[in-house]
Design goal:
Layout lengths: L2 H32 L6 H19 L2 H22 L9 H23 L15 E5 L2 E4 H23 L1 H18 L4 H23 L9 H16 L4 H26 L5 H26 L11
Antiparallel strand pairs: 1-2
Helix pairs in contact: 1-5, 1-6, 1-7, 1-8, 1-9, 2-3, 2-4, 2-7, 2-8, 3-7, 5-6, 8-9, 9-10
Length: about 300
């Protein structure tokens, strides 16, 4: 286990963590404020990536593609909220799960019809396409650092909005007791729409930022949605602080576990069994972490007050 590899994998873990936070932040607000299980949140991540590829092809500018894709992600989210989701708020969770799973199937097939089934790619901006020397012998891609920095910046902005604005006050109150907030005269449907739209835009932003690194393909949001749900369970439903800390924790545990599980198990097992057991154990680490957290703190690490 070299120091260079450890530093690289820590940075990769932070990158995964901030992407998970961008997705989980909107998901935990929707779940916490609206008590709405939205399995289709991952497709907003996918749509953000596809929209960025489309707008880059039309404009040739990454910045223009970023702005237009964010606006389009927001528009798609609000359209889905108006046409489908607002009719499900008063239904039970099983109806919400079935309906939003149907949205996943519909949109996954929709992107195949519009953009095809073949993977697409988004070029990294030329000014950010190189590597930076972090220490002698250690180069790290600039774009990955940009992802980490932009995710942390988005987290700070989101914290400021939630903690220091009137809308944020209503969101925090809604996460604690939405019925009471509505009884005090707040237009809860409008609040729901704002929260939902902002959440989908954050998920779209995550898709845009990862598109230059990963292939843009149908279903790319399905796997990361599972990780996002693990984040909000560990962090606490309705808690932005919990989502942020849990996302970074999961990103580091998953990345470091997959990278060093074999080396660690070799301390206790022979090399051959260690190579056999390590991949299976590494893939289970975040779920074991979730089980431990739920055993010790059933409401998560930082649940919203009143939960």
């Amino acid at each position: 286990m070299s120091t260079t590899l450890l530093i690289v994998q820590i940075l990769n873990g932070l990158q995964l963590g901030v992407l998970l936070f961008l997705i989980a932040a909107g998901l935990t607000l929707v779940f916490g404020v609206m008590d709405f299980i939205n399995l289709a949140h991952g497709v907003q991540y996918m749509l953000g990536a596809y929209l960025a590829v489309m707008f880059y092809g039309l404009t040739g500018s990454f910045v223009a593609a970023l702005v237009l894709a964010l606006l389009a992600s927001l528009g798609c989210g609000l359209l889905l909220e108006f046409v489908v989701f607002r009719h499900l708020y008063d239904r039970d969770h099983l109806d919400q799960v079935i309906a939003t799973f149907g949205i996943i199937l519909f949109l996954n097939q929709g992107v195949k019809l519009v953009w095809g089934a073949a993977p697409l790619s988004l070029p990294i901006p030329e000014a950010l396409s190189g590597s930076v020397v972090l220490m002698p012998g250690l180069l790290y891609p600039v774009w990955r650092i940009v992802i980490i920095a932009s995710g942390l910046a988005a987290g700070l902005v989101l914290y400021g909005l939630v903690a220091h604005t009137r809308i944020g006050m209503l969101v925090r109150a809604g996460a604690t007791n939405a019925t009471m907030v509505s009884a005090l005269g707040v237009d809860i449907r409008r609040l729901f729409m704002i929260v939902f739209g902002f959440g989908t835009m954050l998920a779209g932003f995550a898709g845009i930022m990862i598109a230059p690194i990963l292939s843009v393909e149908p279903g790319m949001g399905d796997t990361i949605l599972i990780l996002a749900f693990v984040v909000i369970v560990i962090g606490g439903i309705g808690s932005i602080r919990g989502a942020f800390i849990a996302a970074l924790l999961i990103g580091l545990v998953d990345t470091l576990g997959r990278s060093f599980a074999v080396d660690i198990l070799r301390l206790f097992l022979a090399p051959s069994p260690a190579r056999t057991v390590a991949p299976a154990l590494a893939s289970m680490l975040i779920y074991l972490l979730m089980a431990v957290v739920l055993f010790l703190r059933p409401s998560g690490l930082f649940p919203a007050r009143g939960r």
